[in-house]
Amino acid sequence: MNFENTDPLAKTASTSFNSSFRAPTHYDVLNIDPAATRMAIRESYLRLRNLYSSNGDGLYGMAGPDDLARHLQNLDKAFDVLNDDAARTAYNHKLASGQTTQPESEWSSEVDQWKPIGLGIGSEIIQTSRSTLKVTRTRANGANSLELQAKFLVVMDEGDIADGSMLATLRELSGVTQAEMHERTKIPLEYIAGIENNRFEPLPKVVYIKGFMRSYLRYLNVPNLEKIVSAYSSRLEAWQSGQK
Q: Which has the closest alpha carbon to 9: 41, 55, 70, 51?
């Protein structure tokens, strides 16, 4: 009897076995058909992103955090292209003409070792003492909700990702206050308010803001966060350069 492996993670990870023959396409990375609708692209992206970011024995074939980070990065790249109609059309033309779609160096030709891992990415950190069990959340309540993350994508599509007020919108959609964000990420309240209100005067150098923004967005579990970090930090850097 022939059993087909329908696990999306296994299908995606299995492309590494054939990567020496053909670099995976963005459609392979997202585990979707080339004719997939935009909604199907978003659903697959969010589902796989949550799977790669989750903790538990359901993750197989990943050697360590670096591999998971690489898979997440490739997911973001694939989604960026296929979620944009113009970029997707241009990409399809490249595929049809047989052009190489990814640099060879981005894909490993090594066969992954299939074994369960539990890396704790995005999980809760448990600290124990003789009499207490302290739980520190590394993500906001409900942050893994695909419905919420789909709303994030709509906000990002329709808004200006270089505008700090968009971050406030994402935070409020999550039901997270500035005080909670400060408590959980240790970002100074002054910086949180400055970022969200586009008040650049109190903000430190861009290199520090990038770190703060990553912590902010990871706590909310915002998809494709580097896109926001890059856009906002470029705007801040331009302003700070003009003040010198």
A: 51
